[in-house]
Fe2OG dioxygenase domain-containing protein (Lentinula lateritia), 371 residues
Amino acid sequence: MTDRNFSSIPLLDYSLALSSSTKSQFIIDLRHALINVGFLYLSNTDSMVDRHLIDTLKDYIPKLFALPQEEKDKIRMANSLHFLGYSRLGAELTKGKTDNREQFDIATEHISRWKSGDPDYWNVWGPSQYPDEALIPGFQQTMKTYLSQVAALGTHFITLIAEALGLPPEGLSRFYDTPDRMQHRGKVVQYPVPSERSQSDQGVGPHYDAGFLTILLQASPHPGLQVQNLSGDWIDAPPIPGTFVINFGRALEFATKGIARATSHRVLSPPVGSLSPRYSVPLFHNIALDVRVRDSKYELEFPPEILKLRDERGNLAHTDSINYSEFESQPSGMVQLMGRVKSHPDVAQRHYPALFKQFFPEGLPKQGFAY
Ligand SMILES: O=C(O)CCC(=O)C(=O)O
Ligand SMILES: [Fe+2]
């Protein structure tokens, strides 16, 4: 119980999971992170994600945001049925306040399988938009390779999560289609330095992530990411060189009967006077679009000792996040689509007029409501 109100985020060494003599310790540490924290740092992932590729990607990021505004707007998200593309600074609100960030939503490669008669939510997956190759040569290939390597790390990590929850390694495979039929969504994000006059330090407000797990690259040395512990205190998760931050989302929490924690988190803008923006690259590792996590078809049986750990942990005293409770009843794809419609009403107005009317009967708001 002393671990209940964590005051720092555990660091796990991925290479320990790859050797039979050290794997059991890794699984024990992962179990603690899943049940009590909901966040972890992961080091030594070079066998899955090329370290040089990460450095190359980091070098591209400031150049990507420095592209002329009109070039960024050419690939704006409103062009895309799949909610993939560029969003200007301040396009979204979280908990009623503007998020001070600018971003490119770019996903792993995927050809939409939607056909007439299929549910709308099949269209949340599809091809990405990239800036003109001549303006940022090589970025597209770097990003594609990066996303596919990180997605593969996520696919392996899911088997470790299953083991940490007392299931066989393939215990969570029912939530997935084959890897070639899945799409995982990445973003490249810039949090600008606020001006002296700024009233807000909100990079992104408190929220949960949606799916099973998020794999985050903190791509600049700025602190700012904070994680809410069981008593509601905000704990810093500053960048640690050579690591990813991994956190668990609402779908995993629902699918595991609350054993795994989706943990509320937020990002503070860089302090006024900082010399450069903060950059990050999250990858949201998805489950299959048709899955209803609470349907009996997907119900998982956990060993009593794992359920006991959940019960000993207890429930949250307080959280500042509210989003994605739709997993209780909706298919995963519908939860994603509803989240996207709320965050990006301009895209919805263009491509999903019926849903747009349902969520925004008064017409187009100035900003989206991210969470
Ligand atoms: O930028 C970060 O470090 C985290 C961003 C985040 O939590 C999100 O976009 O869901
Ligand atoms: Fe998040």
The first strand starts at residue 11 and ends at 13. Residues 11-359 form a domain with the Jelly Rolls fold (CATH 2.60.120.330). The chain has one domain: 11-359.
